TrEMBL record:
This is C2 domain-containing protein. It comes from Rotaria sordida. SMART domains: C2 (SM00239), FerI (SM01202). GO terms for biological process: membrane fusion; plasma membrane organization. It is found in: Membrane. It comes from the Eukaryota. Keywords: Membrane, Repeat, Transmembrane, Transmembrane helix.
Length: 625
């Protein structure tokens, strides 16, 4: 039996405008969800309620976690999530009782709620006993750990970077000395950021004295292997867990003495102690085994399964393949990655489309203002990298918000992730937030030799058409970055900096006035005019109404959007299509061709283009001469 007593919470952030929240706690264990009663209008609730989770005779494992959700009770609609956290049950297995445990919570955007405190008590009764007894460990008894979930503590050359139990010695279960058949299945998915250029990489796997290798991938430092190897072994479980698996990535087109790029050695006992005797889609940090201080030499993605008699191979699902990559990283002992901080300065956004229906206009009046709300969008920006994310404040009812905030994310440098994702969201009170657009920054550290730096500059967002529709369409997925966008959906003005040797203390901060003044020259605009002449329009299908063509650049020229003024000169005169006598229709423009022009204002970035053109010319001159 597992009992969870929810005591109280302190300093819950107030998400209501005219009253306090109505907090409640939901506890989830092994898919079973139970919740407390909700407390009316308070930010410091007290529950003192006990939630029981029957175990049905199955003891809890050291990898089991307890999920805690703090929610705001809603009479109409779904309950609003305030914060969430998780508690490992490894400690309660040893002590059977943990009193007034503090649970750290994060908001839905992943930001730690440092001021909010939630206290719970955990009580665990083992199914093999009828009363709660703490587990005492004494040395000298080889059978004392039979009821305790176990992990290998052999002298390994790896360390799990995201594990919170690094360096802790765990008791190991006695291994069988009986010889039996085992099969080791190893799948090599891909490698990233291999050290060097013009590589022809190949991956070798060594288990005992058997060596197998993948096919050679030519001319890339990010190869995709996608190959599976099988190793059949007959030996005892104890002997198997004392052996190693070695992964070696080499350059096949260099001399034998210089062909090795990086290696990684893994203890088989560690894999055998994992659930289902396997590790699934883990990233391995490659290094030079002769010089660990040389740093990372690349990354290799693998899955390893050890199958004994009667074991079934786990499924190789592709769920969350690219999420939270760095927390699934295994690195060799003694190899230190430098801490670093990404500082993203989000200044403003512009030309954001309408995202809410007019029906919600009356609802938002109650929360924000008494006058009519014309700009039906409540934007905020989410900064994501390597499974981490942090978001700006919400600017209500504004299509051209000014955030002026710094977003900070910590990382280990060099990082295996090569994309920074900037998502502009529309906040909704009654439903989930909608995606306005996604901007992606590609970061390259090994190839160019510079820390990731960008801006201050505008990033354009593209996705589905700007015209608001209350009915979801298939093009809405384009707003999430899945495919190339078909329409302009606004832009954001940002700046990215990388600071080595430190981690962020606060995830969010305000931009200083000096930085705001420094970016003013980059926001000055000049007037431009776009001219287009239409020569012919043919092979049209039959239309019952007139046809006209429109030219737009950004929001300028879009006659369905009245945020940038008159767009009447951006469309051709309406014309009825004429049948061509065969299968199609054409527009009878004849010798008079329609012309359109669009006046617009944009920032002048010729100083950047000139520098890039000069560098490109120099490179071509060096190559050819």
């Amino acid at each position: 039996m597992l009992k969870v007593t929810v005591h109280n919470a302190e300093r819950i952030p107030n998400m209501e405008r005219f009253t306090n929240v109505d907090p409640m706690v939901t506890v989830i264990f092994q898919g079973i969800k139970k919740q407390t009663n909700w407390q009316r209008s308070t930010c410091d609730p007290k529950w003192e309620e006990t939630l029981d989770f029957p175990l049905n005779g199955i003891p809890i494992q050291s990898t089991d976690t307890l999920e805690i959700h703090l929610k705001d009770h809603e009479t109409i609609g779904a309950n609003k999530l305030i914060g969430q956290g998780s508690v490992l049950l490894n400690d309660v297995m040893r002590t059977s009782t943990i009193k007034r445990r503090l649970v750290q919570l994060t908001n839905p955007q992943g930001v730690l709620l440092e001021a909010t405190k939630l206290y719970i008590t955990l009580e665990y009764t083992s199914p093999s006993s009828t009363e709660k007894m703490p587990i005492s460990l004494k040395s000298g008894d080889p059978n004392q750990f039979d009821d305790v979930p176990l992990q290998n503590i052999g002298d390994t050359s790896w360390a799990l970077e995201a594990s919170g139990d690094q360096g802790m010695k765990r008791p190991i279960k006695s291994r069988s000395m009986k010889a039996q058949d085992f099969q080791i299945r190893i799948k090599i998915f891909q490698a990233r950021q291999l050290d060097g250029s013009n590589l022809h990489p190949v991956c070798r796997v060594r288990v005992f004295t058997s060596v197998k290798q993948t096919k050679i991938q030519k001319g890339t430092n990010q190869p995709y292997f996608n190959e599976v190897f099988f190793f059949n072994i007959n030996m005892s479980e104890a002997e198997l867990c004392d052996e190693m698996i070695e992964f070696e990535v080499c350059n096949s087109r260099t001399l034998r003495a210089d062909m090795k790029i990086g290696t990684f050695k893994m203890d088989i006992g560690y894999i055998y102690s994992q659930p289902k005797h396997s590790i699934n889609r883990k990233w391995l940090l490659l290094s030079d085994e002769d010089d660990r201080m040389a740093g990372a030499r690349g990354y290799l993605k693998v899955s390893v399964n050890i199958l004994g008699p009667g074991d079934e191979a786990p499924s190789q699902e592709n769920a969350a393949d690219d999420d939270d990559i760095e927390s699934n990283l295994l690195k060799p002992a003694g190899l230190m990655l430098r801490p670093a901080t990404f500082v993203l300065k989000v200044y403003k956004a512009d030309d954001l489309p309408r995202m809410d229906s007019a029906f919600l206009n009356g609802v938002k009046k109650l929360f924000h203002a008494a006058e009519d709300i014309k700009e039906l969008v409540d934007p905020y920006v989410v900064f994501s990298f390597a499974g981490q994310q942090v978001s700006t404040k919400i600017i209500y009812t504004c299509s051209h918000p000014e955030f002026n905030q710094e977003l900070r994310l910590g990382l280990k440098f060099p990082s295996m992730c090569d994309k920074i994702v900037l998502t502009v969201m529309d906040w909704d009170r009654l439903t989930h937030s909608d995606t306005i657009g996604v901007g992606i920054l590609e970061i390259f550290t090994k190839d160019h030799g510079f820390l990731p730096t960008f801006g201050p500059c505008w990033i354009n967002l593209y996705g589905s058409p700007r015209e608001y529709s209350e009915v979801p369409t298939v093009l809405d997925e384009l707003n999430s970055g899945k495919g190339d966008g078909v329409a302009y959906r606004g832009r954001i003005f940002v700046e990215l900096q990388t600071i080595l040797g430190e981690t962020p203390n606060e995830p969010i901060g305000e931009i200083s006035n000096s930085d705001l003044i420094r970016t003013l020259p980059y926001q000055s605009r000049k007037k431009y005019k776009l001219h287009a002449a239409f020569l012919d329009a043919c092979m049209l299908y039959e239309h019952e109404s007139t046809i006209e063509f429109e030219i737009s650049i950004g929001n300028y020229g879009n006659k369905f959007d009245d945020l940038v003024g008159n767009a009447s000169c951006s469309t051709t005169p309406p014309a009825n299509p004429v049948f061509d006598g065969t299968s199609y229709y054409f527009l009878p423009w004849g010798h008079i061709k329609p012309c359109v022009q669009v006046a617009s204002e944009w920032e002048d970035i010729t100083f950047r283009l000139e520098a890039m053109n000069q560098l490109s010319k120099i490179r071509l001159f060096i190559v050819y001469y």
